[in-house]
Automatic annotation (TrEMBL):
One of its GO terms (molecular function) is hydrolase activity. Belongs to the UPF0173 family. Transmembrane segments: none annotated. Keywords: Hydrolase. This is UPF0173 metal-dependent hydrolase KM295_04550. It holds the Pfam family Lactamase_B_3. NCBIfam families: PRK00685.1. It comes from Natronomonas aquatica.
Amino acid sequence: MELTWHGHSTWHVTVDGTDLLVDPFFENPKTDLEPGDLDPDYLLLTHGHFDHVADADAYPDATVVSTPELAGYAEDRFGLEDAVAGMGMNLGGTAECGDAWVTMVRADHSNSIESDYEYSAGMPAGFVISDKKPTQEADRDNTSFYHAGDTSLMTEMREVIGPFLEPDFAALPAGDHFTMGPAQAAIAADWVGADYAAPMHYDTFPPIEIDTGTFERELKATGARAEAVILEGDESFTLE
């Protein structure tokens, strides 16, 4: 599994022959790419805030994976194909997306859509992307990536996402102010039991500028087994 961070919460995930793009927002200081430089098969949207859907209209051929409410908005506003199996998925659901399996998980955050029309954005979410369908049978060959969306620290990480979905790599918002800061993001990394943890959703706007060294120190202070992965914008990490 190839993971590439394009700044803010935008991640490009490749699972075998399938490309998935999460929360496309390229007007951030960490990327040199234009939206059209990528051609994803699936477009995963965690929630409706502009800094997570701003460039969704650049991918008219991608299949949207989101809540039914947000999928409907994307179809109406951007002309995008509706979500997997012709409908939006929802919290707790798992959908087969090409060579990947996508499980939608809870995120604690607000949710709205900036529009001239009245839209319900549904619940905010995160995603666990894996190369095999998650089950409770032991399978050490299963590789999984957790994109936490915009979330606060929540016990769901410790009680559900960690023990049942067992993410190998966790991408966690760490910019503070609108989401968790470095200290709570480090606790989240410990709770989900990931081998690797990367901060995201930082340095885009003045209120969320951080020293990523703080995340590394906080992660060490928790005693988490996770290794901190601090990526530069447009940098990739191979998860095996």
